[in-house]
UniProtKB/TrEMBL annotation:
Annotated keywords: ATP-binding, Kinase, Nucleotide-binding, Transferase
Listed GO MF terms: ATP binding; kinase activity
Name of the protein: DAGKc domain-containing protein
GO cellular component: membrane; mitochondrion
Tree of life domain: Eukaryota
InterPro entries named among the record's database cross-references: ATP-NAD_kinase_N, Diacylglycerol/lipid_kinase, Diacylglycerol_kinase_cat_dom, Lipid_Phosphate_FormReg, NAD/diacylglycerol_kinase_sf, YegS/DAGK_C
SUPFAM superfamilies according to UniProt: NAD kinase/diacylglycerol kinase-like
Organism: Citrus clementina
One of the GO biological process terms: phytosphingosine metabolic process
């Protein structure tokens, strides 16, 4: 399993060049340096920005809003930037687009959509357990991550206090201020490591997210529908947890376990209120022996982040955590950034200051 001590920030192995920038797209990929004499006086080259757009996000609303935004974006950024647009065609396409853009030396890859699109773009920054790097080893800059929130939840943006306003996002991109952010990595018994930037969670909340993904056409109501469906037949189960490579501990009757790199999930629920994607740690919140009516009675506390004082809620800070099921019941669902990843066991580690983000 890959963890913090084993994580190599080296060059990823070469990959076949994916068909990312399709001919029907309105702008072609051109990431060659193009110095200009106007714009930012200190810059010797135009910034190469690749916008990864999920046109089907939020039941098609993302594509419609992007078309409205594009003329303003061009007028605001094209003086100093080469603007490249790439529309995703299906699951994991954003990962391929991001990897190719980084290899070609893009100044930034900007996710346009919700947390799902952002999640894929973040995973595109990595390949085979390493950061993807520019083909030009002498390049003085790294590729930054950007975000224009246009999705259903846009929970990660809430941690920074960003509104779901694409025009504000364009202004952040125009300023180009960068900050290093942490990324979480999830390992199972087999397969490639998986990365997340927002929140990973287990059991009831992960099952609710799995069902909610089927109802995104209803907007944020999908989270309510998903939670109701997940409650049907749900049973709290006993888990074994190892924090920071310490001793195994048993937690009985676990309802949900949330590992926050950031604060919000589920359409605005402040589940890990002390998490900060720039402090090098996760916040781990464990809910035990919750009944369906507990969520109704404590819903306001869960949304405003004051639930840590509630009985049967535990909060811990961790740079790594392993979780195993010790019950003989149903499989324990695992998700990260709202994406279903399978079932336990899992090990999660934080990668401090893994990538730069336009903030």
């Amino acid at each position: 399993m890959i963890c913090l001590s084993q994580f190599a920030l080296g060059r990823a192995p070469p990959m076949a060049k994916p068909s990312v920038f399709r001919a029907e797209h309105p702008m072609a990929l051109d990431l060659s340096p193009n110095p200009i004499s106007h714009g930012a006086a200190s810059s010797s080259r135009r910034r190469d920005l690749v916008f990864v757009v999920n046109p089907r996000g939020a039941s098609g609303r993302t594509g419609k809003e992007w078309k409205k935004l594009l003329p303003y974006l061009r007028s605001r950024l094209s003086v100093d930037c080469n603007i490249c647009e790439s529309l995703t065609s299906g699951p994991s396409h954003a990962i391929d687009i991001t990897r190719e853009a980084i290899k070609e030396g893009a100044d930034a890859v900007i996710a346009v959509g919700g947390d799902g699109t952002l999640h894929e773009v973040v995973n595109g920054f990595f390949s085979a357990g390493k950061l993807v790097t520019n083909h030009n080893r002498e390049s003085a800059h790294s590729t930054a991550l950007g975000l224009i929130p246009l999705g259903t939840g846009s929970d990660f943006a809430r941690t920074f206090g960003w509104r779901n306003d694409p025009y504000e996002a364009v202004e952040r991109i125009a300023k180009g201020v960068r900050s290093w952010v942490d990324v979480g990595v999830i390992n199972g018994e087999t397969g490639e490591p998986h990365y997340f930037i927002n929140v990973a969670d287990l059991h009831l909340s992960a099952k609710a997210g799995y069902y909610a993904s089927r109802y995104k056409r209803f907007g944020n109501l999908c989270y309510v529908i998903g939670a109701l469906q997940a409650f049907m037949g749900h049973r709290n189960q006993d888990l074994r947890v190892k924090v920071n490579e310490g001793e195994w501990e048993e937690y009985s009757q676990v309802t949900a376990l949330c590992i926050g790199n950031a604060k919000y999930f589920g359409g605005g629920m402040k589940i890990t209120p002390n998490a900060d994607p720039r402090n090098g740690y996760f916040e781990v919140v464990i809910l035990q022996d919750f009944k369906w009516y507990d969520f109704i009675l404590k819903l306001l506390k869960l949304y405003n982040g004051t639930h840590l004082s509630v009985k049967n809620v535990t909060s811990r800070r961790a740079h790594s955590i392993e979780v195993e099921d010790i019950s003989s019941g149903d499989s324990i669902y695992v998700q990260s950034d709202g994406e279903h990843l399978g079932f336990l066991p899992r090990k999660l580690c934080v990668l401090p200051a893994a990538i730069e983000m336009i903030c």
